[in-house]
Amino acid sequence: MLGGAAVDWVAEVETLPVKDGLALARSCTRFPGGSAANVAVGISRLGRRVGFVGKLGDDENGQLLLRAFEQERVDMQGIIIEAGRPTASCFVGVDRDGNRVIFVLPGASLIETTAELDLGHLPGRVLYIGPAYVEVATAAAATGRERGVTVFCAPGGGWGSDGLAQLHPVLEQVDVLLVSRSEAADLTGLTTPSEAIRRLGRMSPPVVIETLGAQGAMVLENERLTTVTAFAVAQVRDTTGAGDAFAAGLVVGFLEGLDWEAAAQLGCATAALKVRHVGARSGLPRREDVASFTGHTQPMSGRDI
Q: Is 138 inside any structural domain?
């Protein structure tokens, strides 16, 4: 698991403020977070052994994240502690319908150069690459491919119109590309999800998966496009981390031998359980919770990530 960790400050409000507006918060709580770190915790809770490769500062927030990894049984041997630098953090505002805005304060989070990347910590069956510097992601993906592991890439947002060109060296090395609807639109300039995923499929790995929030997900495998329906949620409290929860379920489904459509369905179930709780990790379910929710279970075994 390669990517970033951060501390989230989550404020619950009735409605998100408009420009120059003000909103009164019902609460403000600190949570461990960070996209790839959330996925690692989600996979661990679903019963798989997982390690995390990233950075933390030597401050109180970094200690909070280390304690959280330890409690969640995430292998921490690949974590670099950077002295004298604060850990990355986010401020998240969440309204009564679970919609949110996120402000990011950069800090120690990502492996920044290939010199810092210890390839000895890369895994046995699956390598999941979250938002990362292109040079680092490319080196990690190439190593994963050399070792015969399945490489997932979830590059995140903010790449802009030249994002596909920037990501091309990474995409040449990966097996599965995972993006949200907004990220797909950002990368392709196409706002129709089916058009965006097909565009990505022409430049990307054999499998591309696009999450659609409450509408579920799309799976493009070797030019075959299918849609997976989301699970209904009576009360959505916080959508922060829903995509990370989906990713955790997707990876575990793959490891259980499910086809991509069924693995995406497991991802949808994991996300549906998460959004009923405030905080990116608070609602990440155990495997038995997902089994009860979906009405079936799958065998679990091994260290894979």
A: yes
- What are the CA-CA distances from residue 271 to residues 28, 40, 43, 108, 204 (Å)? 23, 14, 12, 27, 25
Could you read off the pLDDT of 175-226 as tens digits, one per residue?
A: 999 999 999 999 999 999 999 999 999 887 889 999 999 999 999 998 899 9
Handedness of CA 62, 67, 71, 76 (dihedral sign): positive
| CA distance linking residue 144 with residue 91, whole number of Å | 34
How confident is the model over 124-181, as pLDDT tens digits? 799 999 999 999 999 999 999 999 999 999 999 888 778 889 999 999 999 999 999 9
Q: What total number of domains does the chain contain?
A: 1
pTM (two decimals): 0.92
4 belongs to a structural domain: no
- The CATH number covering residue 290 comes to 3.40.1190.20
- Domain of 172 in residue numbering reads as 35-85+109-294
The token pair that represents 20 in the structure block: 């120059």
